[in-house]
Amino acid sequence: MFDNLSLRLDKAIQNLKGQATITEINIAATVKEIRRALVDADVNFKVAKEVTDEIKEEALGQDVLTSVSPGQLLTKITNDKLTELMGGKLEEINVSGSPAVILISGLQGSGKTTFSGKLANYLKSQGKQVMLTACDIYRPAAIDQLKVLGEQVDVEVYAEPENKDAVSIANSAIKYAKSNGKSVVIVDTAGRLAIDEQMMSEIEALKKSLNPSETLFVVDSMTGQDAVNTARTFNERLDFDGVVLTKLDGDTRGGAALSIRRVVEKPIKFISTGEKLDAIDRFHPDRMSNRILGMGDVVSLVEKAQQAFDEDEAKRLNKKIRKNQFDLNDFLSQLQQIKKMGNIKDLVGMIPGMGKAIKDVDLDDANFKPVEAIIQSMTPMERENPDLLNGARRKRIAKGSGTSIQEVNRLMKQFGDMKKMMKVMNKSGARGLSALNPFR
After folding, report:
1. What is the extent of the structural domain holding 351?
2. pLDDT per residue over 419-437, tens digit each?
């Protein structure tokens, strides 16, 4: 997401490189390129014009300090305006009530049911007693899908397969939740078309009857500017509280994320970036703006690391590193921990300056599979004592893992180099890899 927009904005701002001051002439050309970049990213044209006019007006009123170049100043102004455009600050989800009711709405195929499962998993991790409610009475297997998701995140699902009245099901679910100590009820509804009057009337009736603490509109970001138009139509009928953008890991230009707040005047509260049930993030406008402008997102990277890494495991690993006992079991464990954090290319892109550097680099989680297969083809003794791996053993491991002897040799060389580096760092008094440990 946003890769092309990031490159276009970077190129536009580079136009000021070498300029001593910001003038009417050079800022006009740069702002024009920024506007083109935003429109190409499927940002609403009116919104793109308003934002770039604001950037231009603010830039012309600034005095360039000797320690700050015009390009740096414009980057700061653009960053502030993009942050403001996307809402300015993190918006909390309202889970007040006994129980709190969260109504999920959106078009057919937007990813509502999957998001409902993700949201249940997220709120459960926050210590909430969550229940999912199946109110999609039209789509075949919708109830079954929600039950599968509920099982995966260990959250109870309330359903009445024979009942064809969504309002009745939802009200019964609330009564059940109250008597069973549930603090949050997530109501998954049927996908609908904005032009389908019967379906729109049903979702309106659900909201009126349930009086939810939060109504979320789920929108597929792949639909681009159409997503914004649909959000406007739904908001006129539902007056929802927030937006959820799904499929941001796909081939999307990001225009919906940049336009929807200004057009609908409702905050983006969550973004969904994959199929895994932990692939859900709160929407931070400032962090997203930083990433768009290639400034990275270290805070989110650290938060993901803290969620993925186990403190006891980290302490155990630190001890082994200090004693120079780091083995292939530990190496495999660390790979699996990194994979839990999400897509590797997205993670590297959160490091400032790395987004542009890895633009054409093939960084795929699938690249880990041969390494995992090689290590898993070893005996427990071989993993603990890599020095045992002679030619015959390496040949057997290559055959067992479906790789080549060259790949096995390459892995062992990389592992050996890593151990040497750890040894040098320990001797020099550094804390080795423990310096990267967020729990230290």
Report:
1. 301-436
2. 777 777 666 554 444 444 4
